Request: fold
Amino acid sequence: MAQDITLGFTALVDAANAEVEMVDLDTARAMHGRDDVVFIDIRDIRELHREGRVPGAFHAPRGMLEAWIDPASPYHKDVFAQDKKYLFFCAGGMRSALAAQTAQRMGLKPVCHLKGGFSAWKKSGAPTDEPQVKW
Reply:
């Protein structure tokens, strides 16, 4: 029996974008390095090794995000207990929309995500740490 997917990925991302603040590159660059903002990189570790990183960003792989945010979880990370703004980003801005929506629904606030993701960040010439290929 074939699956009948009734709500696709694009619709999910569109709904997340309607619910969560999306910041443009100039706004994100102005936020970078501020003490009241935490950049959260949700990309897979292989993407970080291959493409590089935003300096100072906290790496929270998408698959662990809910467990790391929840203070009742044995996997909770203190970075998510701070009174700061959380800027999520991925490679292109779709996964981060979903991640920011989830974080916001869990009660983390304020949150936003970067339009265009790390690809736009790097292409603009914003600061990056070089890739550290380990294989």
User: Anything to note?
Assistant: The longest strand covers residues 37-41. The domain at 13-123 is CATH 3.40.250.10 (Oxidized Rhodanese; domain 1). The first helix runs from residue 9 to 19.
